[in-house]
């Protein structure tokens, strides 16, 4: 893990978007198709606003969420809704988007279907909560052991008591294996949470399971 600090969140958004653009260029130079998993929540939208304008072969890129709240895409809490609106726009509209939620499937059925199509991702942009969750790998979730297991499937279903809905998440195994890894965290509380996570086991601090070769981007 290595950490890059920025003066403020605007500078962080620019720096993270530039780092992701550079990684995408490298990946697209060595492989035909590139798969990217990005966080939902509040942190990444300004990064997406910049990255979406990058001059890249977006038609060779597949974008998915790192995790999804099991709600329809019309719901305000849908990560897919935010990612489509802020990243799949401008030049990046040529990318393919892989939604997770399907109205007619339960979360378990949805996860099983996704496991048949996704076995790995090339690049990740993750976020983290002050509770040290990342993607939807929550410390309090029913299902967290399965999400952290070394032989976990690509997708796992989480039922965090702290959250209003079931979640589907890429497993720690798949997230940690990405070739290019970025974590965006803002604020002193998240800096302290990340420092604490490094002293905890992954069950208590799921972010700790995905920090191998991670670039952590922090701003106050
Ligand atoms: O619920 C979620 O939260 C985390 C962190 O979100 P933030 O609003 O604090 O940036 C996010 O990374 C994850 O994708 C999302 O589903």
From TrEMBL:
Q: Which domain of life is it from?
A: Bacteria
Under Pfam families, the record lists:
Glucosamine_iso
The Gene Ontology biological process annotation of the record reads: carbohydrate metabolic process; pentose-phosphate shunt
Q: Which residue ranges does the record assign to the Glucosamine/galactosamine-6-phosphate isomerase domain?
A: 8-218
The record, for CDD domains, names: 6PGL (cd01400)
Q: Which GO terms describe its molecular function?
A: 6-phosphogluconolactonase activity
Pathway of this protein?
Carbohydrate degradation; pentose phosphate pathway; D-ribulose 5-phosphate from D-glucose 6-phosphate (oxidative stage): step 2/3
Alphabetical UniProt keywords: Hydrolase
The record's catalysed reaction(s) read: 6-phospho-D-glucono-1,5-lactone + H2O = 6-phospho-D-gluconate + H(+)
E.C. code:
3.1.1.31
NCBIfam families attached to this UniProt entry: pgl
What the protein does?
Hydrolysis of 6-phosphogluconolactone to 6-phosphogluconate.
In the record, the note on similarity to other proteins reads:
Belongs to the glucosamine/galactosamine-6-phosphate isomerase family. 6-phosphogluconolactonase subfamily.
Name by which UniProt lists this protein: 6-phosphogluconolactonase
Source organism per UniProt: Tritonibacter litoralis
- Source species taxonomy: Bacteria, Pseudomonadati, Pseudomonadota, Alphaproteobacteria, Rhodobacterales
